[in-house]
Every structure is written in C-alpha cells, then in structure tokens.
C-alpha cells in the first residue's frame, strides 16, 4: 500500500513537472511570437515611408539621424536669443573644431558686451552637454501628410538608446517636412505628447522647429534656425520661454 502511494506521488510530481515544462514552452513561444510581430510591424511602418521616399525620388539616407547632426568638421557662428518674462538675452558665439575640445566654443558677446569668464564657462558646459546622436524607433514611423507639394512623416526616438539628458525625448514625436518640388528637407518639428521632466524643469509644452538648408558643396544639410518654445512651471506658475538659435557662415576646417 505504502509502495503504491509512493508510486502515485511520484507520478503526480512527474505530471506536474511536465505541465510546468509545457507552460514554460508556451510562454517562450508567446514571447517569440510577440517579438516576431513587433519586428514585422516595425518593418511595415518603415517600409511604407521608404516606399513614399522612393516614389518621390528622396534619398533614404535622410532617415539616418547622423546626417542631420551639427558638423564636426566645419566652423560656424551662432546667435542665440533667449526670451522669458519680458527679458531678452542675446549671445553671439563661434564654433571652431580645429581648436582643443574645451576651447572650441568662443563666446564673442552677451547683449553686445564682452562676456564674463563665468558666462563663457556656463555656455561651453551647456553646449558640451548637448545630446549625442539618437536612434529612431522603426515601429513609430507614420506618413502624416502627402500632397503634390509636401511630404510629412513622423516618428519617435528609441528610448533605450537615449542618454540621460535626452531621456525626455521618449515622450515627444518628431515631424519631418520634405518639399517634394525640391526633394529637400525643410524642417523637423518636435512636439511633446505629455508633460516633460527636463532635468529639474517641468515643461507643459515643448515645441521646437529646426529649419535646414542643403549645402551643395558639403553635400549635406546644415541647421540654419532653431526655434524652441516651452511652457515651464516654477513653484506652480507657468512661464513661457523662447530660445531662437541662428546658425551661419559654415566653413570646412
């Protein structure tokens, strides 16, 4: 009798083990299927955009975020105007990649006057902290608008590839506008989809428009104007902050 109970208990344990193995297999299969579905969806989303690019004769390299980064082999000038609560600050600076890294940015003036050492250090620190090249989440591509004159696509950045300073971008969508007559990129607009936490600042609104110009000699796009409008909250009070950055006089080094 005792032997019969032991055998029955062993069979029950073996049956439970088999059930657990089958459950684990089903879970693994489900994960594989979800990953496969995600890959197919991402491919389909990007494929639709690539098809539109092909129809209109647009270079697909435009989808590579690196192609729109600020150049590391060109010098250029920057005039940056910050407007907040009725006050305005204008900074004029120059970038020269041939100089040592810590001296590549030169602050020419602030509000028409020579800058203090602290102003120079603060400006250089902020510029050097700017986010690196982001990666696009292929599953988020969309064709927003397609007319004889214009193609607008949208997408989001891959949050897994964002650095700490650029982590807030996961809650933003980017809109790329292409002129179909010239086949050239005109602008990229970044809009927040929910309130953002940018370092210590809470932003209810984040609206940035970057205008580009094609440089035939360099065979690449250069940023010419960046207009950032934010509604930030300090101690529960909303404040509008606008930063206009104008880039000019690009020169190969």
TrEMBL record:
Q: Which organism is it from?
A: Flavobacterium endophyticum
Q: Provide the protein name.
A: Uncharacterized protein
